[in-house]
Predict the structure.
Amino acid sequence: MKRTFIGAAAAFALAASAPCAHAQSFINVLTGGTSGVYYPLGVAIGKIYGDKIPNVKTQVQATKASVENLILLQQGRGEIAFTLGDSLKAAWEGEEEAGFKTKLDKLRTIGAIYPNYIQIVATAESGIKTLADLKGKSLSVGAPKSGTELNSRAILAAAGMTYKDLGKVEYLPFAESVDLMKNRQLGATLQSAGLGVASLKDLSTSASINVVAVPKETVDRIGPPFIAATIPANTYTGQDKDVPTAAVVNYLVTSSAVSDDLAYQMTKLVYESLPELANAHAAGKEIKLETAATGSPIPLHPGAIRYYKEKGLIK
């Protein structure tokens, strides 16, 4: 009788634990606008996770990008997100002017990915060829409090300007900015994104453009995490010369609420699926495992650390 009871109890315990062993995890991938770079890369990552992590359901959410993504992570409304390095630093420090009312202490880094290039593009008709030419002209600086908008403030400040020096400021996502430019209602747009962003490719094939340089001395005035970079010739139709600009590294970020095992799998699958990410967008070609564990302004997730230790990137 006793043996039967013990056997039944063990069977019950096993049955009760089985659903937990096979419990479905959920990964919400927080990206950006659908015309930017975060979104196609996020779709690719969502598919990789859905295909390769057992018992996982994925969703890809279009957002206003960096700032919103970090706030959603802190609130537990996402498991992995794209962000610019300067936005990540501001979130960790609770920089209110950047859109963070308190310090977002639950954020943890998965890894560094590709650099965002500051791409200031004007219609040839606007006559804007240099940063100084923006004075008195109309410029779209990105969605309010987005990573792009924070970059716009930094670039203008380094060039000795504020929004007050502009003729008109539009706070619009990439695609909407380009639509206004096509309709001759906007002179220029600043877009912080990977090279070959769809919105600017679209603009350059339908209108004559000027890609505005951000000189190295201007970048140096801002300092880290901004670095001097180059937009190679022929990135966009009609752009026949290299153009100097600024760049900021992007990061994939998660939350301390995400388990070590899940964070490990998310990290491993990103850096072991780089060909798929390169196929999703040209910016994916710039993601390198060798630099993944470097430069983050906030702590790495323990699950990511475990992967980087396996690869010899962290001792």
